[in-house]
Amino acid sequence: MRMPFPEIDVVALDCGRVRVRPKNIRGTGTPMLWWTLTARTWSPWLPVHAFLVSHPRGTLLFDTGQSPASLAPGYYPRGLVGWVFRRQAEFRVEVEHGLTAQLAAAGSSIAEVDLVAVSHLHQDHAGNVALFGETPVLLSRAEHSLLSEKDPSLHGVLVDHVGAANYRPVDFPPSADSEIAMFEGAHDVFGDGALVLVPTPGHTSGSMSLLVRRAGAAPLLLVGDLTYDPALLEDGIVPDVGDRRAQREASRRVRELIETLPGLVVLAAHDPEAETRLASA
Ligand SMILES: [Zn+2]
Predict the structure, then answer these.
(1) Which of 6, 45, 79, 140 would give a disulfide with 206, using CB separation of 3.0 to 4.6 Å?
(2) In a domain, 2, yes or no
(3) pLDDT value, residue 259
(4) Domain membership of residue 132 as a residue range
(5) Domain-located, residue 3
(6) Cα–ligand 1 centroid distance for 178 (angstroms)
(7) CA 65 – ligand 1 centroid, Å
(8) Ligand 1 center from residue 213 Cα (angstroms)
(9) What pLDDT, in 10s, does the model give residues 58-82?
(10) Distance from residue 228's CA to the centre of ligand 1 (Å)
């Protein structure tokens, strides 16, 4: 028998604004290069969330937000790759969106974070990992391997900004936990089943999500960029980025999890409703 889950407080941090091309949210099967070249419209400005998760054994930060340094010239690569980055997304990071300010507003600090986990290595999720020094940063082994690709920027990974951290690649061995049997495996962060990382690849080859199961409140699934909107995920609509087939498969598994854990709240990094959903969870 499993021990009862502890009480776990989760706070949504507001680490910037982003706007993206419509196909980046609601895909129709259009090749990414095509919409990158031809898109004329932007989504509304959307939040860039990170989540502070307070477990009795330690405080975990899931994703780290966009760095204010990204607004300075020279942050993006030169040439075509840099142009593609700027065509696909625009960011705003006001002073109050800085991670230090956001953590302070949540009653915490960089030094009080015991463990970081990043859903994937894109700049709006891993953009502030360099602030954490020796603090371990969990990411999937598949995502970690992107750092040693010949040109990680072709995968949307800016090594100069997200490469320096105390990365601890995690594997997802098969789990005996029947509630998460739809996933190939899992990484149980504190060994009590309360915080469990599961693979949800597709947006990037190593994207992962965090399941939070806790006493006295609804379970949560922090999905990074698997979707921008849980309603799209429910309808099986995935973005026109990365590997669409893998995203559909990961979304299917998440829907199965929703059926298994009634009341599960899906929190996406760029969902404007995420804070409201969290407050009512
Ligand atoms: Zn993102």
Answers:
(1) 140
(2) no
(3) 97
(4) 9-279
(5) no
(6) 30
(7) 9
(8) 24
(9) 999 999 999 999 999 899 998 988 9
(10) 9
